[in-house]
Structures are given as structure tokens and as C-alpha cells.
Design a protein that fits this description.
The structure holds 2 protein chains of 2 kinds. By secondary structure, chain A is mainly β. Chain A is built from no helices and 12 strands. Chain B is globular. Classes of the chains: A mainly beta, B mainly beta.
Chain lengths: ~110, ~120
Amino acid sequence: AQSVTQLDSQVPVFEEAPVELRCNYSSSVSVYLFWYVQYPNQGLQLLLKYLSGSTLVKGINGFEAEFNKSQTSFHLRKPSVHISDTAEYFCAVSSGGYQKVTFGTGTKLQVIP
Amino acid sequence: GAGVSQSPSNKVTEKGKDVELRCDPISGHTALYWYRQSLGQGLEFLIYFQGNSAPDKSGLPSDRFSAERTGGSVSTLTIQRTQQEDSAVYLCASSLRAGGPTDTQYFGPGTRLTVL
């Protein structure tokens, strides 16, 4: 079985400061990892994904994430946040074999002016 | 091309009534997911389809909830005898195939259900 843990339910950060949103997963097989973003009153959209290859993945809006197999983590980072980054961020994992995608509980990023 | 669409966008109903929520996935996507998002809460998985089959219905909260998918395309989520706790945004997503690298989910805008 696969699972995702997002330990931080809320992360406040000042504008232009760096941020890291943590995601840990568990799976007994190869994994594919995703980060989605949900802006206020909107649906979810894909931010970035790791399928294979380079462990550092770059996404939209200056975000990046690093796949660390030994630590079973896929943390999301941005070197300098903007007010417009205020949103909820969801980590997700998918394995093979027609198993459904599993989402984490989400982390609300609050950027403070 | 067209994204995932859901209808209606908003639905207000009285307690005890039945409601049907519709999802049109992206053409060619074989996997379809239903989620529920209550106010201030994360995503709650309800059910997913691979083709017309539902390998996992474990997220349906009660037997008042059911879903079907016909022709490998449109899906309908039905809630019978609605209760106030059913009030939430119901999100639909589709992907090329469930499980694996092609399971990038594309979400619809959701249906906001309010049960009075």
C-alpha cells in the first residue's frame, strides 16, 4: 500500500523568504510523485511531477522539488515566495498496477507581506 | 483541448432530496476520480474508475452515495436522501490511466453542493 504524509498543515512565511513544504511517502514499489496547488476558490492544478531521471524537478512559478529515495521524501521548495503563492499545496503518489493516486492532507502556505 | 468539466457548478438542495453530479473527463482519459472537499479540509477520496469499472469504492462515506460511469466517459455521482453533512465541493479528476506515470490528474472546477 502507498501513503503520503504532509506533516505541516500550515506554513506561514514572509514575502521574499525561502520556503520548504515537506512530503514523505511510503510505497513498496516504484513511485511517481506529484505536487498540486489549489489557489483560493479554485480547482487543483499540477505544479510539478517526478517520473524518473533527474531527482531535481522544476515546476511552474519557480517551484522545485527533490526526490530522495533513501529518505522517501519529495519536499517542495521555492527560494523566494510571493504573495500570489498563498495557496494550499498537495503532495501525491502513484504506483503501478492500476492503483489509485494517493493525496496527502495538504499544506496551507500563507505568505505574509 | 477541453478540460474536465463538471455540472452543475452550484447545487442547493433540501435535506432528504436526491442529487446527481456529473463529470465529463478529458477525451481519451480512461481513469476518473471523485473527491470531496469540505470547507477548510483537504481532499477526501470517494471512488475511482478505470474504464467503466470501479476498482476502489472504499471512500464512499455511506450507501447513500453511488457512482457510475458509462461508455468509459461521463460519470455521475448520486447522493440519495442528502444530509447537511454532505455539503461540500465535489471534485472530479481524470488521467490517462490509473496507477503509474500517466496518472497525472486533471481536475474539474468542482460542484459546490449545499444541503439546507
